[in-house]
Amino acid sequence: MLSVCNILNLAGIAFIAVGAVYLLDIKSVTAAVDRTGIPFSVAPTLLLVVGIVVFVISFLGCCGAVKESYCLLITYGVILLVLFLLQVGIGAYAFMQLKDSDGADKVSIENELRTTMREYPHSNQAQATFDTLQGQLKCCGVRGPSDWNGVTVPLSCCEWGPTQCYLANAYQDGCFPILYSFLHQSITIIGIIFVTIGGIELLGAICAFCLCCSL
Question: What is the pTM of this model?
Fold first, then answer.
């Protein structure tokens, strides 16, 4: 039982670490994605919250095991079971979103980017969004630099240094394929983490209920 609690402690720390990386280390990208209308930051925020809950609850299980407290153990088991069901549901939903890579979600993301790009000349928010995506992901336009034909190519389309950016020296990769790949991989990683840790939580709940029966 104590071994399971220790594993859940580590799992909680892992949740917190991954969530923090997405929210802090690459916060400029996640914030830019959110501004396009895609609420991507919800996933790492949820990961961070669940990590904190798992970390705190694991101490409840440890106390219950050491003191052999029926009340603490049953509470610990029920909470873990609820978390398990929630995480499996979230993980299953994440994988369902990925089952058709050419589906409506892909079209929706590209449309959101094109809408933001059209607003670029007269919207500070659109400028901040696209400049962040182009600078951080090293891409230009939605499908490529030619998307900026007829419009001054933003400096964020080029490596830092030049005072002007042209189609010839701009990043040649479009932002949509890179961004979609980033979202696809991130959701896959988060989904796998949720389901894997959910299995450990189920094991913890079973151990807690078994220990309760032996008291």
Answer: 0.71
